[in-house]
Amino acid sequence: MYIVPSSTAYNVSRKLASIFSCNVSGVVRKRFPDNEMYLKIIDDVKGEDVLLVGNTRGDQDIIEYLLLLDAIKEEEPKSITAVVPFFGYARQHMRYNNGEPVSSKVFTQAINQYADRIITVELHDEQTLNYSKVPFIDIKIINPIYKYFMDKNIDFVISPDDGGYERVKLMGSKLGIPAYYIDKKRIDSTTVKMTLPEEDYKDKNILILDDIISTGGTIIKAAGMLKDKGARNIYACAIHGVFANNSNEKIERYVNELTVTDTIETKYSNITISGEIAESLKDKISI
Ligand code: R5P
């Protein structure tokens, strides 16, 4: 078995290799004189189970991922598992307006041309799973987050919107604490009204848990409201730390601690998802 890392997922690749006791293949990355991407897999993956680990977040990342899939397939491996810790473009999982593409379908179907299965983590919307003809597994990350926060004396866990309520309910029941969500209503295209549930937040340690932090607007608003109510410590946690426009710098001013998983590798990635990915693969590949 081999792991081929895209440049977006070296750490998760190494961690998976250590769990499976297998090699991480070398990859040569260069640019042609016209700046097109050149890639070459160094190890011989013929007849092997291969995991290609990488994200489809930025446009370059998608090109790299698809080229690596083709490079692997050309070597005639035994199987290809597409491990995509952060499945980018997943927010456009349906047509909102005429003339738009269904982006998550495009990338799912492209990966389908090569892979025997796809594994991802906390997809934005499970509709995307239906676009795949090969098995497509969406892993939920609860235990590693629970383990990280279990000793931090959290009093409440709160989701910044009702969409994340199931996640915080699960976390709350593991931590043995109440779980709430903030009522979020869109007033117009630029205004969102957020209302905290009636609770006593004074001097409480509160965990805000979300699936993704992008511009940071949601987390900052939630943290600001909790601070105004007298919360003592605010821990912000998300599965995917996109941190668009360096929003992490602003978020840090509002929270006591910012933590994300390593689906996207950042300096806040204190929680790894590699154990959960390995677990989901146990009975699917020969180790
Ligand atoms: C919303 O549906 C999501 O759960 C996140 O709350 C949202 O995408 C976060 O985005 P931002 O960081 O840009 O506010």
Care to give the gist of this entry?
This protein has 287 residues and is α/β, with parallel strands linked by helices. Helices cover 28% and strands 27% of the residues.
**Overall mean confidence score, pLDDT:** 95
CATH architectural name of the largest domain: 3-Layer(aba) Sandwich
Total beta strand runs: 16
Q: How many domains, in number, for the residues?
A: 2
In CATH terms, what is the fold-level topology of the largest domain? Rossmann fold
Give the end-to-end Cα distance, rounded to a whole number of Å: 7 Å
Strand order of the largest sheet: 2-1-5-6-7-8
Proportion of helical residues? 25-40%
Globally, the shape reads globular
Radius of gyration: 20 Å
